[in-house]
């Protein structure tokens, strides 16, 4: 927040480019790069294939397809399905202001921790060793 606006804008453009999202962002939002819109696009957008929400939804659907997701009849989806479901709900009901108002780093660390927990739960559910 202590960065001058032009330098701060450069950081957000760099973030979009690192996520292969800059062109898609520019097509959706014709105006200048805005931190709130960048977060909405990268984290919460249900239609952008590289957004966190889109990827978690795809993971949930794939987990359901192999029998361990939210839609699974056994064990109400298993631990991995429940963790993915909770994380998706949080993303669906969060807004960029919520993230900017608290700590982006904390929010992202929580998402990363939950994804690690999902990986461990899938490993436990499907590994034979």
Task: Give an account of the 3D structure.
By secondary structure, the protein is mostly helical. The protein has one domain (5-126). 70% of the residues lie in helices and 0% in strands. The protein has helices at 5-18, 22-28, 35-44, 52-65, 78-93, 96-101, 104-126. α4 (52-65) packs antiparallel against α5 and α5 (78-93) packs antiparallel against α7 (104-126). The longest helix has 23 residues, at 104-126. It is elongated and about 55 Å long. The protein starts with a helix and ends with a helix.
- What is the tally of beta strands? 0
Main beta sheet strand tally, sense and closure? none
Rg for CA atoms: 17 Å
How many structurally independent domains?
Answer: 1
The computed structural class is: mainly alpha
What amount of the residues lies in strands? under 5%
The shape is: elongated
Indicate the mean pLDDT: 85
Distance between the termini: 48 Å
Number of helices: 7
SSE order, as H and E? HHHHHHH
């Amino acid at each position: 927040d202590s960065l001058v606006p032009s330098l701060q804008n450069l950081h957000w453009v760099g973030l979009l480019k690192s996520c292969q999202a800059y062109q898609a962002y520019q097509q959706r939002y014709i105006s200048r790069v805005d931190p709130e819109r960048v977060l909405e696009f990268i984290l919460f957008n249900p239609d952008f294939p590289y957004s966190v929400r889109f990827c978690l939804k795809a993971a949930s659907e794939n987990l359901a397809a192999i029998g361990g997701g939210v839609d699974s009849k056994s064990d109400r989806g298993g631990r991995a399905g429940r963790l993915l479901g909770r994380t998706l709900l949080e993303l669906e009901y969060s807004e960029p202001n919520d993230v900017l108002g608290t700590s982006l780093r904390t929010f992202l660390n929580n998402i990363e921790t939950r994804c690690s927990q999902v990986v461990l739960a899938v490993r436990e559910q499907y590994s034979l060793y």
